Amino acid sequence: MSRLRALGAAVMWLWNHFAISAVAAPVSRVLTYYSGEAQKLADPTYGPIPGLSDHYSSYWGIERPFPGNISDPVFPTEEGPPAEDDATWQNLLSAEWIIFEFYQQGVERFTDEDFVKAGFPTYTRRRLMEIRNNEAGHLRIFQNQISPTSIKPGACKYKFPLDSPRGYLGFMTVMEISSMAFLTGLVQEAKIPWNQGAMAAISQTEARHEVWALMDIWKVDPFAGPADTVFPYANQILYSTHALVVPGTCPHENPEYPHPRQLLPDLWASHDANSVEPGARITLSFPEPDNQPVFDDDTQYYAVFFHSVLNVSVPIDTEGFPERPINVTIPASLERKGVFVALVADEPGAPTKESVVAGPAVVLEQPAELGLALVKGGPN
Ligand SMILES: *[C@@H]1O[C@H](CO)[C@@H](O)[C@H](O)[C@H]1NC(C)=O
Ligand SMILES: *[C@@H]1O[C@H](CO)[C@@H](O)[C@H](O)[C@H]1NC(C)=O
Ligand SMILES: *[C@@H]1O[C@H](CO)[C@@H](O)[C@H](O)[C@H]1NC(C)=O
What we know:
This is Rds1 protein. Keywords: Signal. Pfam families: Ferritin_2 (PF13668). The protein has a four-stranded antiparallel β-sheet. The protein has two domains: about 30-245, no CATH class; about 270-375, Immunoglobulin-like. Helices cover about 40% and strands about 10% of the residues. By secondary structure, it is α+β, with helices and mostly antiparallel strands. The protein has helices at about 1-30, 55-60, 85-110, 110-115, 125-145, 165-190, 195-215, 235-240, 370-375; strands spanning about 270, 280-285, 300-305, 310-315, 325-330, 340-345, 355-365. The chain is globular and about 55 Å long. One 2-acetamido-2-deoxy-beta-D-glucopyranose binds near residues 283, 325, 326 and 327.
């Protein structure tokens, strides 16, 4: 009897051991090169909770706020298939690391006086801290929305335009409006209505940040007309941020960012552009030597401008490219407000993501001078 019981206990031990190790193995393997601190984040009740804690608004330290101070990926704690919207939240979390780090590094790089000397309000840096805290809250919200069967991506190393307060704030303005525009697309990828609502709420927060910058920093009318710009191909905007990520610095367990991605050539306006407002003629520039668009001789290509809830297409002459540069006149019919999302497509209206061959570029119309500088490759 006792021998049988011992055998039973051994079987039970083996069974338990296997059942547990099937889940625990990926975690224990990573503990050899990660501290294990990040694994605590798998519990959504760990640390300050967004909506219950003022940490994500009123933390005034310079050091990274939680969970931005824990940059490792968080490994799955359960086995099983991913939840329906996990990939969408993973894309959002990877993008959020870029945005959070942008604010964090600005807070570290510039002093209150730097902003004042450049002509900006005395409380500029404090607002940037508050925005940074909101972005830390986004990190936590997105971590919590990814189910326990999927990895929560960690931070990479990034490079940002940190040379001058003015250039930094210019980049901030286009980053916030780009966040808003990509969220109008990302919300269309989410399958679960609650998640769609949560993403809409996040995009409202980015819009509030943008409105502050437009009114207080740039002293312009903050309104963008009756609707902000809807752009359906969110991952194309996410991919256009790849130049900010230092190659080879992402945790190698992170999922591809963004997923899926098309590796489309970047699209800018050439340096001789003197306006990106409706009616202006610009020459297109594809700044990455290793990623140039390829145009078929017998296909008609279009520059497509998304604005508000519509898009306007302009046929372009690609014959002789790249020796003969491509020019386009920005449709004079567009309202000079908010943002345009511009791209090159092989069909009018870019009706599928596969029809896009270069871009998109996010073209800020407000303030117009800033939009021009940014689309030429930098605000300085
Ligand atoms: C991260 O920040 C939180 C809150 O400020 C703090 O409690 C925690 O110890 C920090 N963790 C690390 C690893 O720095
Ligand atoms: C675009 O404009 C430039 C001059 O700004 C000209 O050299 C070039 O030929 C034009 N390209 C086309 C396709 O017309
Ligand atoms: C652009 O607008 C056309 C209608 O003018 C529409 O058929 C097309 O789907 C729109 N493109 C996108 C990507 O929404």
